[in-house]
Amino acid sequence: MFSSVADMMRFATVGTAILAIVAWSCGTSEGSISPSPQGGVEGLVTALSDASAPVREADRFDAAPLQAQGVLFCIGHEEVRAYVFPTAEARAAAAAAIDPHDPSHIGTSIVEWTGNPRFWQRDTILVLYLGSDLAVETLLTSLIGPPFARGAGGRGLPGPRLSAC
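User: That's the sequence. What structure does it adopt?
Assistant: Structure tokens below.
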């Protein structure tokens, strides 16, 4: 089947890469637990750094109306918010309260976002991006999977946002 050891090694490398991609895609589906031993914001920041993104943790924020800890981090000059929950189950329950077609509706609360909200979920965190940088959205989607909630374009509050980034 193989004409040389080099051919066998190339086949093994391709097979390993395919298995890694399949395992990654299974591990990042909506509502799944991250297969990474380092989860939460730290795991996401590590994954972003590994993808060569300029990322840093910036600040904390009031996570209301979600019952979570709010951690703000920056990808370049773009703000990304992480809502940190004690367990994946608590994260899943919070995600279930967010209207997937209109994330301004969270349970019985209505939030007026400054921007166009997109929510992702990973292990014990919900990730919110309000910006308009397609590269940041694409990067988050490549690492976490597609957003589970996406607001209608242009419905966020207009005007400049103050940024910690």
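Residues 117 and 130 are 5 Å apart (CA to CA).
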